């Protein structure tokens, strides 16, 4: 799948698991990649907002993450860092359970599924395990997420499986490597 540069502005309508909207800003020209976005949603009758900045190197390996959330209960923030040795720090504390993960994955975001698609050169039929540091929406707690991606065709369809959540679906990507359709989660808006 030949990918082109991510546009400066992209958005998704979240529906199914939650109702909301996500906006991504991805300025070009910087060394590496910076993805800055916000998701505001209502899930289970509870409203929340998660703002994030993800910094990745030239090979799309996550290096730093900053996230904030706001709910009626208050606000929280967290920082993640992945060293060249593959070790993760969450708010300055080493998290051995995350060691070996290359990507971050936000429960609140459709954009984080782009990281492995840009980083890995999938051939059609390839199934690759891509564990990630998973950040929860409601409290920004972080856990290890076991997941796999299988490239189904040249058109941008991938079978996605989250072993951690016993969940599977078919993801559709565009030529930017961004989600077009994430069933029960998000649909590309612009």
UniProtKB/TrEMBL annotation:
InterPro entries tied to this protein: Glycolipid-bd_prot_put
Name recorded for this polypeptide: Glycolipid-binding protein
């Amino acid at each position: 799948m030949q990918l082109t540069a991510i546009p400066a502005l992209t958005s998704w309508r979240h529906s199914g698991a939650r109702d909301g909207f996500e906006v991504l800003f991805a300025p070009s020209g910087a060394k590496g990649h910076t993805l800055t976005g916000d998701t505001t949603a209502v899930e289970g009758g509870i409203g929340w907002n998660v703002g994030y900045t993800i910094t990745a190197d030239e090979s799309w390996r996550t290096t730093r993450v900053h996230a904030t959330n706001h709910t009626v209960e208050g606000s929280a923030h967290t920082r993640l860092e992945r060293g060249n040795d593959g070790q993760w720090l969450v708010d300055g504390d080493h998290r051995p359970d995350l060691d070996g993960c290359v990507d971050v994955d936000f429960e609140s975001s459709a954009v984080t599924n782009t990281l492995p698609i840009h980083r890995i050169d999938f051939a059609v039929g390839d199934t690759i395990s891509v564990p990630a540091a998973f950040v929860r929406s409601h409290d920004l707690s972080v856990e290890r997420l076991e997941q796999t991606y299988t490239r189904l065709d040249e058109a941008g369809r991938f079978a996605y499986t989250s072993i951690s959540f016993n969940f599977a679906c078919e993801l559709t990507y565009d030529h930017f490597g961004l989600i077009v359709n994430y069933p029960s989660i998000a649909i590309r808006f612009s």
